[in-house]
Write the structure tokens for this entry.
Amino acid sequence: MATESAAAPPTSLPLARPTLKRRRPSRFVRNIVVLIALLHIYVGVRLLPSLPIAALGRVLGALALCASFTLIIAGARARMMQSTAFAAKLAWAGSLNGGFFSSLAVLTVTRDLFLGPAVLLASRGEAGTLETVSAIAVPLLAVLATVVGFIDARRRPRVVEVEVPLAGLPPELDGFTIAQISDVHIGPTIKRDFVRGIVDIVNSLHADLIAITGDLVDGSVEQLGVHVEPLSRLRSRHGTYFVTGNHEYYSGAAAWIAELRRLGLQVLLNEHRLLSHAGASLLLAGVTDYSAQQFDPAQRSDPQAALAGAPADVRPRVLLAHQPRTAAAAADAGFDLQLSGHTHGGQFWPWNLFVRLQQPFTAGLHRLGGLWVYTSRGSGYWGPPKRLGVPSEISRVRLVPARRS
């Protein structure tokens, strides 16, 4: 049986101290609400006059858009409450509608981008037909995208096989496997049954190690403890390791760290473990989320600190870090592989196009200098229960010698 040795206790991260929650500026919240309202007005102005409906139909359409705006805002508030059955249903309704309206707005913008040139080239009669047909197509396509996205989001995550070629990998570690779970976002629409399904899949992989790379929850321990409990059944040769994501800090990181440790998970806070496997050693480290210092300065993410006291000759060095943008610091610290999440792979179009504005990698295996970075598309979803062209995943990462690549 493998043995583990702890190193570099997290003396710089006082868990007894309550996590400081960053208050969202009220101006930011107001701006988001105004933006959502303006988008609803825009959709109404651009679509309703072009639809083949009478005046009453346009009035009903305008009322439906008002109801959509109200439901999105009410659903967002209900997501934070999660205290009653009504709040849970309202959160579900708001999330579903949010996913639908997102597609409706994006498709309306797309229609306008293509409609202008098309109308200029068409005759007057053709232009009118084109406007009407496209106005009908937009809500129908939004409904289709929402239904397909919902089915894709709610199905069990697929298993993605990833081979990482590492130079100098000890023969004893050839084929060492890590099952990675990331971004489950247990909360208003992801509950115990969904988590139980993930646990069953991961246990069936018989991985050497299980890694959970943050954003596990969207809510407090009091609200979601019972739904997280199935994680206590995760089984692997070297155990289950967890690092915080930004949503843990929104949800009370100190309480969740204590709860996950109670369930048997090992939480790595800028620290490492040395794992003995078939006579060889592997260094596994984990850092707090890239944004952790905004909530508690004492929990600043630090890959270099995670190596404090580590033997210099132990390879490979694997880092668990929620956000891919930790990669630059991880490469400088001398890690060989970083496992991350956070991006959801964009979750659904067109948001995958904007991930690179914040993160160096959107999904999959990439190289940064001497560091390999694997970014999971996530095992759940956030916000709308919707994934479109970006299926959820559980990653089985296999270490292999570089000669195989």
Q: What stands out?
A: The chain has nine helices and 13 strands.
